[in-house]
Amino acid sequence: MNQPKRPSFPARLGPPSAQNAVRPVVRPAGNAAPRSAAPMPAPRGVGLDSAAVRSRMVQRLAASGISSAAVLQAMGSVERHLFVDTALVNQAYEDTSLPIGLAQTISKPSVVARMIELLLGAEGARGGLGRVLEIGTGCGYQAAVLGRVAREVYSIERLRGLHEKARNNLRPLRLTNVHLIFGDGMVGYAQGAPYAGIIAAAGGDAVPAAWCDQLAVGGRLVAPMVQSNGQQILLVIDKTPYGFNETVLEAVNFVPLKSGIA
User: Which residues are catalytic, by number?
Assistant: First the structure.
Protein backbone atom coordinates (compact mmCIF):
# COMPACT_ATOMS: atom_id res chain seq x y z
CA MET A 1 0.00 0.00 0.00
CA ASN A 2 1.11 3.57 -0.64
CA GLN A 3 1.96 5.86 2.23
CA PRO A 4 -1.33 7.43 3.43
CA LYS A 5 -2.18 11.08 3.58
CA ARG A 6 -2.67 12.09 7.18
CA PRO A 7 -6.33 12.85 7.99
CA SER A 8 -7.17 16.45 8.75
CA PHE A 9 -7.90 15.67 12.38
CA PRO A 10 -7.32 12.65 14.62
CA ALA A 11 -10.10 10.46 15.99
CA ARG A 12 -10.40 11.21 19.66
CA LEU A 13 -9.86 8.36 22.05
CA GLY A 14 -11.72 8.38 25.32
CA PRO A 15 -13.78 6.28 27.71
CA PRO A 16 -17.09 4.87 26.53
CA SER A 17 -20.17 6.93 27.27
CA ALA A 18 -21.32 6.77 30.85
CA GLN A 19 -24.81 6.00 29.62
CA ASN A 20 -23.55 2.65 28.41
CA ALA A 21 -22.02 1.63 31.72
CA VAL A 22 -23.52 -1.53 33.15
CA ARG A 23 -25.18 -0.85 36.48
CA PRO A 24 -26.45 -3.57 38.80
CA VAL A 25 -30.17 -3.66 39.39
CA VAL A 26 -30.91 -3.40 43.10
CA ARG A 27 -34.33 -4.53 44.26
CA PRO A 28 -35.57 -3.47 47.70
CA ALA A 29 -36.02 -6.22 50.24
CA GLY A 30 -39.53 -6.94 51.41
CA ASN A 31 -41.52 -9.31 53.57
CA ALA A 32 -41.49 -12.93 52.52
CA ALA A 33 -44.46 -13.86 50.37
CA PRO A 34 -47.03 -16.18 51.99
CA ARG A 35 -47.11 -19.76 50.78
CA SER A 36 -50.42 -19.15 49.07
CA ALA A 37 -49.00 -16.35 46.91
CA ALA A 38 -49.17 -16.85 43.17
CA PRO A 39 -45.85 -17.95 41.60
CA MET A 40 -43.75 -15.39 39.79
CA PRO A 41 -44.08 -15.48 35.99
CA ALA A 42 -41.41 -17.47 34.17
CA PRO A 43 -38.59 -15.31 32.77
CA ARG A 44 -38.81 -14.51 29.09
CA GLY A 45 -36.38 -15.98 26.57
CA VAL A 46 -36.57 -19.49 28.06
CA GLY A 47 -34.48 -18.27 30.97
CA LEU A 48 -31.77 -16.91 28.69
CA ASP A 49 -32.19 -13.40 30.08
CA SER A 50 -30.52 -14.64 33.26
CA ALA A 51 -27.18 -12.94 33.96
CA ALA A 52 -25.84 -16.33 35.03
CA VAL A 53 -26.15 -17.64 31.47
CA ARG A 54 -24.09 -14.76 30.10
CA SER A 55 -21.63 -15.11 32.96
CA ARG A 56 -20.91 -18.71 31.97
CA MET A 57 -20.28 -17.57 28.39
CA VAL A 58 -17.88 -14.90 29.65
CA GLN A 59 -16.05 -17.48 31.76
CA ARG A 60 -15.55 -19.63 28.67
CA LEU A 61 -14.27 -16.62 26.73
CA ALA A 62 -11.78 -15.83 29.48
CA ALA A 63 -10.65 -19.46 29.56
CA SER A 64 -10.11 -19.34 25.78
CA GLY A 65 -7.68 -16.42 26.11
CA ILE A 66 -9.77 -13.23 26.03
CA SER A 67 -8.12 -11.05 28.67
CA SER A 68 -9.56 -7.56 28.14
CA ALA A 69 -11.81 -6.68 31.08
CA ALA A 70 -13.66 -4.15 28.91
CA VAL A 71 -14.43 -6.77 26.25
CA LEU A 72 -15.52 -9.40 28.78
CA GLN A 73 -17.79 -6.90 30.52
CA ALA A 74 -19.31 -5.81 27.21
CA MET A 75 -19.89 -9.41 26.11
CA GLY A 76 -21.56 -10.16 29.41
CA SER A 77 -23.85 -7.15 29.23
CA VAL A 78 -25.38 -7.82 25.79
CA GLU A 79 -28.16 -10.41 25.60
CA ARG A 80 -27.20 -12.39 22.51
CA HIS A 81 -30.45 -14.36 22.44
CA LEU A 82 -32.33 -11.17 21.57
CA PHE A 83 -30.44 -11.04 18.26
CA VAL A 84 -31.16 -14.57 16.99
CA ASP A 85 -34.31 -16.16 15.62
CA THR A 86 -36.75 -17.61 18.14
CA ALA A 87 -36.12 -21.16 16.95
CA LEU A 88 -32.41 -20.79 17.75
CA VAL A 89 -32.48 -19.04 21.14
CA ASN A 90 -31.41 -22.17 22.99
CA GLN A 91 -28.12 -22.03 21.05
CA ALA A 92 -27.60 -18.31 21.58
CA TYR A 93 -24.82 -18.65 24.17
CA GLU A 94 -23.04 -21.57 22.58
CA ASP A 95 -19.81 -20.74 20.79
CA THR A 96 -21.26 -21.14 17.34
CA SER A 97 -22.32 -18.96 14.43
CA LEU A 98 -26.03 -18.95 13.66
CA PRO A 99 -28.05 -18.01 10.55
CA ILE A 100 -29.81 -14.64 10.68
CA GLY A 101 -31.41 -14.72 7.23
CA LEU A 102 -30.42 -13.60 3.74
CA ALA A 103 -27.53 -16.12 3.73
CA GLN A 104 -25.80 -14.24 6.56
CA THR A 105 -24.75 -15.31 10.06
CA ILE A 106 -24.13 -13.95 13.54
CA SER A 107 -20.50 -14.62 14.43
CA LYS A 108 -19.41 -16.89 17.28
CA PRO A 109 -19.09 -15.08 20.62
CA SER A 110 -15.40 -16.04 20.69
CA VAL A 111 -14.82 -14.44 17.29
CA VAL A 112 -16.66 -11.24 18.24
CA ALA A 113 -14.66 -10.99 21.47
CA ARG A 114 -11.36 -11.78 19.73
CA MET A 115 -11.82 -9.17 17.00
CA ILE A 116 -12.96 -6.44 19.39
CA GLU A 117 -10.04 -7.17 21.70
CA LEU A 118 -7.68 -6.87 18.74
CA LEU A 119 -9.37 -3.61 17.73
CA LEU A 120 -8.85 -2.17 21.19
CA GLY A 121 -5.18 -3.13 21.23
CA ALA A 122 -3.15 -1.01 23.62
CA GLU A 123 -6.00 1.50 23.81
CA GLY A 124 -8.01 -1.08 25.72
CA ALA A 125 -5.88 -0.31 28.76
CA ARG A 126 -6.58 3.41 28.40
CA GLY A 127 -10.34 3.35 28.68
CA GLY A 128 -11.66 2.36 25.25
CA LEU A 129 -11.87 3.58 21.68
CA GLY A 130 -13.08 6.77 20.08
CA ARG A 131 -15.02 6.56 16.82
CA VAL A 132 -15.41 3.09 15.23
CA LEU A 133 -16.71 1.95 11.84
CA GLU A 134 -18.26 -1.52 11.56
CA ILE A 135 -18.61 -3.05 8.09
CA GLY A 136 -21.56 -5.44 8.05
CA THR A 137 -24.13 -4.74 10.77
CA GLY A 138 -25.89 -8.07 10.35
CA CYS A 139 -28.41 -8.49 13.14
CA GLY A 140 -26.75 -5.76 15.24
CA TYR A 141 -25.14 -7.91 17.95
CA GLN A 142 -21.54 -6.86 17.39
CA ALA A 143 -22.61 -3.22 17.07
CA ALA A 144 -24.22 -3.49 20.52
CA VAL A 145 -21.00 -4.89 22.01
CA LEU A 146 -18.91 -2.22 20.26
CA GLY A 147 -21.23 0.43 21.66
CA ARG A 148 -20.02 -0.51 25.13
CA VAL A 149 -16.30 -0.15 24.41
CA ALA A 150 -16.29 2.78 21.97
CA ARG A 151 -17.39 6.37 22.29
CA GLU A 152 -19.21 6.28 18.95
CA VAL A 153 -20.04 3.51 16.47
CA TYR A 154 -21.06 3.81 12.82
CA SER A 155 -22.29 0.48 11.46
CA ILE A 156 -23.06 0.01 7.78
CA GLU A 157 -25.11 -2.79 6.18
CA ARG A 158 -25.72 -3.40 2.46
CA LEU A 159 -28.79 -5.65 2.84
CA ARG A 160 -31.91 -3.66 3.64
CA GLY A 161 -33.60 -6.62 5.34
CA LEU A 162 -30.75 -6.97 7.82
CA HIS A 163 -30.44 -3.22 8.29
CA GLU A 164 -34.08 -3.14 9.39
CA LYS A 165 -33.64 -6.23 11.57
CA ALA A 166 -30.68 -4.66 13.34
CA ARG A 167 -32.61 -1.44 13.86
CA ASN A 168 -35.48 -3.36 15.46
CA ASN A 169 -33.09 -5.39 17.62
CA LEU A 170 -31.14 -2.38 18.84
CA ARG A 171 -34.02 0.04 19.37
CA PRO A 172 -34.98 -1.32 22.84
CA LEU A 173 -31.35 -0.98 24.02
CA ARG A 174 -31.38 2.81 23.40
CA LEU A 175 -27.69 2.96 22.48
CA THR A 176 -27.55 6.57 21.37
CA ASN A 177 -23.87 6.25 20.42
CA VAL A 178 -24.58 3.53 17.80
CA HIS A 179 -25.58 4.81 14.35
CA LEU A 180 -26.88 2.43 11.67
CA ILE A 181 -26.35 3.18 7.99
CA PHE A 182 -27.85 1.43 4.99
CA GLY A 183 -25.23 1.48 2.26
CA ASP A 184 -22.28 -0.15 0.53
CA GLY A 185 -19.75 -1.14 3.16
CA MET A 186 -16.92 -1.41 0.63
CA VAL A 187 -16.86 2.38 0.32
CA GLY A 188 -16.97 2.84 4.09
CA TYR A 189 -18.64 5.91 5.56
CA ALA A 190 -16.57 9.01 4.87
CA GLN A 191 -18.92 11.33 6.79
CA GLY A 192 -17.76 9.83 10.09
CA ALA A 193 -14.05 9.55 9.26
CA PRO A 194 -11.38 9.41 10.48
CA TYR A 195 -11.95 6.33 12.64
CA ALA A 196 -9.90 5.11 15.57
CA GLY A 197 -10.93 1.60 14.58
CA ILE A 198 -12.53 -0.22 11.65
CA ILE A 199 -13.86 -3.76 11.98
CA ALA A 200 -15.30 -5.91 9.19
CA ALA A 201 -17.63 -8.92 9.37
CA ALA A 202 -17.03 -10.07 5.78
CA GLY A 203 -13.90 -11.08 3.91
CA GLY A 204 -12.70 -10.14 0.43
CA ASP A 205 -9.61 -10.63 -1.70
CA ALA A 206 -8.20 -7.29 -0.58
CA VAL A 207 -8.89 -4.57 1.95
CA PRO A 208 -10.75 -1.74 0.19
CA ALA A 209 -8.66 1.43 -0.19
CA ALA A 210 -11.55 3.48 1.22
CA TRP A 211 -11.20 1.76 4.60
CA CYS A 212 -7.51 2.57 4.80
CA ASP A 213 -8.17 6.17 3.76
CA GLN A 214 -10.83 6.57 6.46
CA LEU A 215 -8.68 5.08 9.21
CA ALA A 216 -7.03 7.68 11.45
CA VAL A 217 -3.27 7.78 11.87
CA GLY A 218 -2.72 5.67 14.97
CA GLY A 219 -5.90 3.71 14.23
CA ARG A 220 -6.34 -0.01 13.70
CA LEU A 221 -8.32 -2.08 11.19
CA VAL A 222 -9.35 -5.69 11.87
CA ALA A 223 -10.83 -7.69 9.01
CA PRO A 224 -10.88 -11.14 7.43
CA MET A 225 -9.14 -11.43 4.07
CA VAL A 226 -9.02 -14.20 1.47
CA GLN A 227 -5.54 -15.43 0.60
CA SER A 228 -4.44 -16.70 -2.81
CA ASN A 229 -5.12 -20.29 -1.69
CA GLY A 230 -8.74 -19.39 -0.96
CA GLN A 231 -8.37 -19.56 2.81
CA GLN A 232 -9.54 -16.66 4.94
CA ILE A 233 -7.21 -15.23 7.56
CA LEU A 234 -7.64 -12.50 10.14
CA LEU A 235 -5.71 -9.38 9.22
CA VAL A 236 -4.75 -6.49 11.50
CA ILE A 237 -3.62 -3.22 9.90
CA ASP A 238 -2.12 -0.41 11.96
CA LYS A 239 -1.89 3.02 10.33
CA THR A 240 1.22 4.98 11.26
CA PRO A 241 2.52 8.38 10.09
CA TYR A 242 4.86 6.45 7.80
CA GLY A 243 2.51 3.89 6.27
CA PHE A 244 0.71 0.68 7.19
CA ASN A 245 1.84 -2.25 9.30
CA GLU A 246 0.07 -5.53 8.56
CA THR A 247 -0.17 -8.57 10.83
CA VAL A 248 -1.59 -11.88 9.61
CA LEU A 249 -3.27 -13.97 12.31
CA GLU A 250 -5.36 -17.14 12.50
CA ALA A 251 -7.65 -18.71 9.90
CA VAL A 252 -11.28 -17.59 10.06
CA ASN A 253 -14.49 -18.21 8.17
CA PHE A 254 -16.68 -15.22 7.29
CA VAL A 255 -19.28 -14.54 4.63
CA PRO A 256 -17.83 -13.00 1.44
CA LEU A 257 -17.44 -9.23 1.15
CA LYS A 258 -19.70 -7.83 -1.58
CA SER A 259 -20.30 -4.40 -3.06
CA GLY A 260 -23.55 -2.56 -3.73
CA ILE A 261 -26.83 -2.63 -1.83
CA ALA A 262 -29.71 -5.08 -2.00
Answer: 107
